Amino acid sequence: MTAGGPGDRPLTGVTVVVTRPIDQADALADLLAGAGALPIVMPLIELVDVASADEVAAAIGPLGADDWVVVASAHAASRVRGALTSSPARVAAVGATTARSLPRTDLVAEQQSAEGLVAVFPTAGGAGGAGGAGPAGRAVVVQAADGAPTLVEGLSARGWTVTRLDTHRSRPVRPTAAQQLAVLRADAVVFTSGTQAESWVNVFGASAPPVIVTIGPQTTRKTEVSGLKVTRTAADHSLPGVVEALTECFRR
User: Fold this and answer.
1) Could you give the number of structural domains in the chain?
2) Are residues 194 and 231 in the same domain?
3) What one-character-per-residue DSSP string does 33-65 give?
4) Which ranges of the chain does DSSP label H, i.e. alpha helix?
5) Residue 27, number of CB atoms within 10 A of its CB
6) Are residues 210 and 119 in the same domain?
7) Domain boundary, last residue among 169, 203, 238
8) Quick one: 54 and 163 in the same domain?
9) Cα–Cα distances in angstroms (integers) from residue 242 to residues 172, 188, 206, 213, in the given order
10) 169, 171, 173, 147: which is closest to 44 by C-alpha?
11) Taking Cα atoms as reference points, which of 185, 191, 176, 173 lies closest to residue 227?
């Protein structure tokens, strides 16, 4: 369908499946509802911790003022926030949403993605990108256990001694039969991680609503490798960016 609401509610009448974990679904559902959409919350994954507080402290505690903690998502940020309050290390975030979940940041990627952060990250012991020069040192990359190695590989290529700290991982959640029937009648589905798309295919195969929107390039790659065709990738890799991408899909 095409949206038929006024300009400030451009998604009026559009049904959109939200597949984020249940404790994080409301943020996107509220933005969609504000644009006039009818969100259908059907979590396909849940997040479980894989690192204890002691393990997080052991990874971050030894870092000095010339070192970095590089945080790949808001989920990862929530698991290291406490350890960062007493650490002298510099802090980098992949985007604005992640940065807002941290007590402080020294570098935030304008292009909100792992690739965008690598592009502006300082080179160890020499001139860097927007972050300026940086002496050789250590970088702890905080991310999901099932996350892509983009940051680890990119920072290693820039001369940093990189340690990967996996703080959490995704676990599939199987929807009820009633939920499955409802979502296949929807107008669109949104994936904010590749594991959501993989879980979708495990449940529904190639069947999906006619419009599929993802939050960024990594999610798009995983979605298409899983066998689904992405309609649009959000240009701004954030929840508001997802809503804007959906609006473009349904704009008359």
Assistant:
1) 2
2) yes
3) HHTT-EEEE---EEEEE-S-HHHHHHHHTT--T
4) 25-34, 53-60, 74-84, 96-100, 114-120, 150-157, 177-183, 194-204, 217-225, 239-250
5) 15
6) no
7) 169
8) yes
9) 22, 12, 22, 7
10) 173
11) 191
**pLDDT at residue 4 in the model:** 52
CA gap 22, 252 in Å, rounded: 32
pLDDT of 104 higher than 70: yes
**Does the pLDDT value for residue 25 go beyond 80?**
yes
pTM for the model stands at 0.77
Strand 68-71 and strand 45-49: the pairing is unpaired
Between CA 16 and CA 25, with CA 21 as vertex, the angle to 5 degrees is: 45
Instruction: Look up the domain containing 236 and give its range.
Output: 15-44+173-250
Q: What is the CATH number of the domain that holds 20?
A: 3.40.50.10090
Residues 67 and 27 in one domain: no
Is it the case that residue 2 has pLDDT exceeding 70?
no
pLDDT at 81: 95
| pLDDT, tens only, 126-149 | 544 444 444 458 999 999 998 889
Residue 134 is classified by DSSP as: B
Share of the chain above pLDDT 90, in %: 78
